[in-house]
Amino acid sequence: MDKKTRLLKTFALESPDRPAILGGWLAAPNHIQAIAGCSDDDYWADPFHWGREAERRLGSDGLIGVFTPAARGGYRNVDQAILDARAGYSVEDILAEIDRLPEPDQLWAEFDEAREYAQFAAEWQAQQAGAGDMLWCEPDWYVIPRAIWYHEYGENAFVTLGLYPERYRKLLQVSAARGRQRALVRARAIRAGICPPALLSGEDLCSQEGLLVSPRFLRAEYYPLVEYALEPLLQAGAKVVWHCDGNSRPVIADLLTCGIGGLQGFQTECGMDVEWIAGRRTRAGDPLLILGAMSVTTTLLHGTPAEVAGEVRRAMRACRDRAALAFFVSNTITPDIPLENIYAFWEAVRASKW
């Protein structure tokens, strides 16, 4: 079975010849160079090309993306300037930015779906051509509204929400309008067969201890906007897979009620066990689409190659006849993860049979 067919059957909740494996979060220039067989200078001249080539040589069936560092010599895709800017936002700065935002009605008045679709389709087809026999599966982190604006505004985003909930609401409403516009474009591309009918999205609503904001706020203000933004995708039959960091157990039921069709991530040390997750169902009663469940903080980092292979078998047992499974990592594969464990992960999946 070819790679694209293997993933598309998985996305359709069907059983391929073996589990598919997704790449794209290999964030380790030293490992990419070893896998792809390029020099340090070659890699830094074109990190995207060599990252994609490493995934090809590993045998990935599809690509969530290609992780590229922000600066030579590092591996993170966020540089210090971004972190400093985030820390520098005061509550007054955040309120001023909120006030400068356009109203949702203005966003809709300016929205040209045909133009946005043409641009999206051209860019997607170019990426798919570059991916070759691998299926391009780029996520969209902005197709859903944002509840927590920590990544943009730092800790004062929480203070703003607590002190000025009415004004903060505009952030959610604007991001929901923009998300629905993106969903309309992507849904059109799915119907045209340009991109696959599954996409990774989501927001970090939880830390390792649990929720970052109150469930009352999420249920009253946020989840209705999630449903609103995702409606075009769900009408197109798409499966939206939610990225789950930390202890996401408190939000799983609500997310599934919103129409989420799959989950990705799973920090086992936070209680996110694939055995428990695989038994959940969508609001329509369908099995979940699972992208996982290889942990980059436990097994892949600290285990032996044999233990990595054992984790592959464990996930297969947990999902067999209960959930669709495409193997993926819980988060980025950083330079401290042993190279032999990366090889062991891909080899164990490619050698497995349903």
What would you say about this model in short?
This protein has helices at residues 3-11, 29-36, 40-45, 47-58, 80-87, 91-100, 104-110, 113-131, 150-153, 156-163, 165-191, 215-235, 249-257, 274-277, 299-302, 305-319, 339-350, and strands spanning 20-23, 62-63, 135-136, 198-201, 239-244, 262-265, 289-291, 324-327. With 354 residues, the chain is an alpha/beta fold. The longest helix is centred in the middle third of the chain and has 27 residues, at 165-191.
Tell me what the structure shows.
- By secondary structure, this protein is an alpha/beta fold.
- It has a single domain, classed as TIM Barrel (Alpha-Beta Barrel).
- Helices cover 52% and strands 8% of the residues.
- The protein has 17 helices and 8 strands.
- Strands 3-2-1-8-7-6-5-4 form an 8-stranded parallel sheet.
- Helix 13 links the parallel strand 5 and strand 6.
- The longest helix has 27 residues.
- It is globular.
- The two termini are 13 Å apart.
- The relative contact order is 0.13.
- The mean pLDDT is 95.
